[in-house]
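Quick one - first record:
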Amino acid sequence: MTTSEHSSDRVTRRGFLGVAGSTGAGLIVAGCGVKSSSSGSGGATGRTVKLGYVTPQTGPLAPFGEADNFVIDALRPQLRSGVRLGAKRFPLEVVVKDSQSDPKRAADVASELILKDKVDLMLVASTPDTVNPVADQCEANGVPCLSSVAPWDAFVFGRKGTPDKPFKWTYHFFWGLDTIVDVYTDMWEQLGITNADVGALAPNDSDGKAWADPSTGAFPLVEKKGYTIVDGGRYQDLTNDYSAQISRFKNAKVPAMLGVPLPPDFTTFWKQAAQQGFKPRIATIAKALLFPSSVEALGDIGNNLGTEVWWSPSHPYTSSLTKQTAAQLAAEFTKSTKKQWTQPIGLVHALFEVGIKVLTDSGDIDNKQKIVDSIAALKLDTVAGEVDFTSGPVKNVATTVLVGGQWRQQSPGKFDLVIVSNNGHPEIPAGGKVQEL
């Protein structure tokens, strides 16, 4: 095992992401142990193929990168096998960069990966503030890019894309805002909440702007279903006073709320809401409530908070690389890390499944056009479900499944995420019905 930068550093497997986050070093975590045909590899060894990988491993978005170490470690046998094209097997190297939850740094490290590390394919995940600046760098420099874990609407419209003017080099798979609105309104309707005022909490960042966009956002989609949005207004990330938003929601007596705040911001908001006597019947919160740690930070007032579920041990899908089921992958994460499973496990794993598949399908890793052509033609069953770039909804995008869940307190400080809305995806079993806060 070697490093692409600071090669004299002695880095343990458990610590490599922490070092990458603190030093900015890109670390090669695969590509070792690929042998020539004389030692039984079944073909000559070609040049090394480089995958760049950018995620937020530190900063307020760090929960999204929590599973990175585990996923890459679990995929080491497949990554070590490299990519076979005809009689040759090409070793794979993965160069990891930490965005530090900062869009500017995401763009900077992407530029490093493109210009210095000369990556053949960029992989990037987790929120528009990470995905979009990396994808923009790839588009500008003609580097194939695959991304996930950000609503596809934010990926397309947030980068000034349109259905009739698609991107050339950048492709994305995840659910869209229309899908999450369908999930959340189904959860509200299970409580008989229809045609009501709904509180909306959205910051002044890429996610918040995408959700609030009057033409392509989630809020107008909610209003098309007969609800009235009570918008708390754009606020700065890491704000420490939400009295204005809470007062607005209380005055409107909203029975439901939705939003897309940072994890630490919702912790602050919800604690202040409890102190100020604001308690809707249901709260469905994207991004902030994806992770066990976020709910545990709230204690008892976290019970029955709702969120979207894009991956879980209950999802009936299997990895195209390891052949593990979602349940097996989640169980292995808990065994390996001693932590509760978390949703990014499945989508990060799927991102590498798709990346390796498109390189193999390209037939020529030195031809970037063939790589993007293989992305556009890809249709693959992954541990996160089917990824199909041939069916839209727009060019450059493939959609993934989405259901809804609520956090149920099992013991003091410990919560399980229970699926309570599976409309459109009966293959993903529900574990209960929606309950009021």
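second record:
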Amino acid sequence: MTADETLETLESTAPVVQTPRLAIVLGNIGRALILAGIVTFLFVGFQLWGTDIHESRAQDDLRTNLDERFDAAANLLDSLPVDPTPTVEPTPTSSDAVDTDVAQMPPSSSTLPGGHDPDVLALIFPEDGDAFAHLEIPAIEVDKIIVRGVAVADLRKGPGHYAQTPLPGNSGNASIAGHRTTYGSPFNRIDELMPGDEITVTSVQGEFTYRVMDPLVAYSDRLEQIDAVGDGHIIVHPGAGWVLENFGDDRLTLTACHPKLSSRQRIIVAAELVTEVVALPEWVIEAQAERENKTLIIADETQPSTEDSTEAATDQSGIDTGLDPDVIEAPPSRAADLDEGLKGERGAIPGATMWMLAGLTFWYAGGWVGRSKANGRASRLALRLVGLAPAILCLWFSFEMIDRALPAG
């Protein structure tokens, strides 16, 4: 018997040593912890770089869109009359047939005051998430496109204008929110602003310059509601929505989370308008109000009686509509919420969990197939890589939804 044959005989007759169950359990726990560490590391990378890529691409699209809006505004708004003669609609008579099965729609170009093109409203009041204005703050190197709205999805594109506050350059307190970390971090250095620093906002109405105010002057009658005061900013509780209210002057308010990487408080900067105030034509204000407060004609036979409908209309809107009792007016626009868009979307957690589990399933499935079906190391590695590609894709979607669920930092 040769030496090789002797060695094979000894190996075949050697007793098989069973791996202790505790060792198996500890090994699996160790591998799970390593995988969790890798996923956490990848999520941190997504927060630091992936979100900036997302915001940069969105800003490129927004700049193109805003340029197009400016070009369109040059043609439409230059000839905009200040106070056109409103179109008088004929009063319906009792003999007029009314189709109560159709909901009342927003005004068309033929019913806007003065018969104006509704595209004018779309230029001045874009849809949420669309390009709204250009923001420049040289002192902290900010050059961003502002979007309309401050929902989570809006602020992922750039700073957002609180739609419930006045337009920049108009009378009142125009307010803008932005991230301090992730998604381009437009307000990362907002705490460095000093009284006198200039802020420029350019919209379809023109270019407007603001100067940062001394916070002790800007909020002189609210000092007891402020947590801390800096050189050019204040720190308040997330529920301090009063910073978005009208203070009787013409200002711009910038809001962001504080401290960085936390949403425990809010940092606020107020800047006074130093250029001439502009105003929208009366018909534009009326048409926008009508567009935002649509009415709905109720014709279902199961609806309450006329008397009950009248009470319902008053109760839901808080205002006596003065319309037919079958017409319920939508409630006025809600007040601006300082915490909107910065507190995260808890509804994204289930989706994030599902995508994470899907990614882990692909990863482990590739490993299991490789161990059970492949004969060589190269084949096992190839099968593991086949599972890696969809796993990474699922993780990306999971990271996107986790980020949506987390409060802004």
